[in-house]
Amino acid sequence: MVDESIAQALVEVAVFLEFSSEDIVNPDSAVQALEQLSATLNGADAETKASLSTHFNRISQRYTGEEARFVRTLAENLGLNEGQG
């Protein structure tokens, strides 16, 4: 089980990368960083991925609008739900 504070930190980084303007973060670099995050997290075991997915869903309720939708689908977009059923 992943501590929720770890999941929150991952969400904060992902939201920053996704929603920062071009003058703050180069869009290509943001995409590259999110892809690397995905690759790294996909090396985790199934229990860790499921825990992150649960936390991301819960954490999404703290956000509004487009950010809430982004966080709610973060596990899926990072490929953490693949192979689970």
Record keyword descriptors for this entry.
85 residues, mainly alpha, 0% strand
What does this structure look like?
This protein is mainly α and 85 residues long. The protein has one domain (4-77). Helix content is 68%, strand content 0%. α1 (4-19) packs across α3 (46-60) and α3 runs antiparallel to α4 (65-72). The protein is globular and about 40 Å long. The chain starts with a helix and ends in an 8-residue tail after the last helix. The relative contact order is 0.18.
From the helix content, strand content and strand pairing, which structural class follows?
A: mainly alpha
Main beta sheet = none
Q: State the low-pLDDT regions, or none.
A: none
Order of helices and strands: HHHHH
Shape: globular
Radius of gyration: 13 Å
Write down how many β-strands occur, each being a DSSP E stretch of 2 or more residues.
0
Give the DSSP E fraction (strand runs of 2 or more residues). Answer: under 5%
Taking all residues together, what is the mean pLDDT? 95
Q: Distance between termini?
A: 18 Å
What fraction, in percent, of the residue positions are helical?
Answer: 55-70%
Report the total helices.
Answer: 5
Count structural domains. Answer: 1
